[in-house]
Amino acid sequence: xxxxxxxxxxxxxxxxxxxxxxxxxxxxxxxxxxxxxxxxxxxxxxxxxxxxxxxxxxxxxxxxxxxxxxxxxxxxxxxxxxxxxxxxxxxxxxxxxxxxxxxxxxxxxxxxxxxxxxxxxxxxxxxxxxxxxxxxxxxxxxxxxxxxxxxxxxxxxxxxxxxxxxxxxxxxxxxxxxxxxxxxxxxxxxxxxxxx
Length: 196
Known about the structure:
mainly beta, 10-stranded antiparallel barrel, Lipocalin, single chain
């Protein structure tokens, strides 16, 4: 009887330790990430942009972090190459909703350029992104965001919803897939991430 009681106590202690370790797992904001991107523009059926995105974020204290990204996409139609590059830098604030889930908001400066044999056009603007990152298990992370980008040149704006899922191979390396959609475009991504 004492052996069973002792074994039950050990099992309970082990489960409690596992739950505490899981409860302390929060999304890591110190990371760099490389992604393959494919984007389809609804009004231009002939264009299906593909390319890559490099991004990263770094906490500068418990709640404030900085972000940066660069994306280069391209396509060719009727022998004309079209290159679409975007840049962004910003600052964000994270708030721990639970031990495993963060809500966040990011304010950023955005720049985009489109170049082809017919010329080049540049735009700048600002972005506002809000979202939630959650470690739904020790290895699975889900993120949902809503982003608003305004063009300071012609006054246009666009709202995009995105969802991503990451599988954490270990504490440093993870792989993921994402989908995003807006009023005139949609796309998907496959990513590799290094957390530090």
